[in-house]
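Pipeline run #58 for the internal structure catalog. This entry was flagged by the ingest filter as a single-chain record with no existing model, so it goes straight to prediction. Upstream metadata was stripped on purpose; only the residue string is passed forward. Reviewer on rotation: M.T. Logging verbosity set to normal.
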Amino acid sequence: MERPVRRLAARRLRTPHAAALALALVAGGFAAWAGQDWYRAAHDDRAVYAVQRDAALAAGGQAVQNLNTLDHRDVNQGLDLWEASTTGELHEQLSSGRTDFADQVKEARTVSTARVLSGAVTELDDRAGRARVLVALRVTVRSADGTRTDKDSRMLGELTRTDGRWKLSALGQAPVGGTPAG
């Protein structure tokens, strides 16, 4: 009967080593899988695209908010912000009409503030440096007599990447409901 006891003893000696080896193999396999998954994620073009999409949305939302905010008490600062937020033809239009517009705002004595409610990127061409955004915002206008008016609107903006930054190159009202865009 001694012989079967020796076999059990020999098996017991192998069992801790086998379990440790199996555990090491499982851990190594998991590390290899996790490393490969991390590498794929770090070198995925979709991640870079998502970063650009988020940057375009943030810049577009801020620029639309900037162009809907203006205080008659400090018109020049507001108009400077407008010009800093724009590029291309839109920038040229704002710059060329700046003096007349400033005079109108000072005469009307209004304060408008905008708050972005939501936004989305509708198109993004990262290689060409162009994007389109749809931004919903609430504009509050306070007149000289103290009356306050809130207006919700949706704006469509075109963005152009200039010197690594997204800027508005066009801005207009989005069609509401079933009305055709045109």
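catalog note: The CA atoms of residues 43 and 170 lie 33 Å apart.
catalog note: The mean pLDDT is 89.
status: ready for reviewer M.T.
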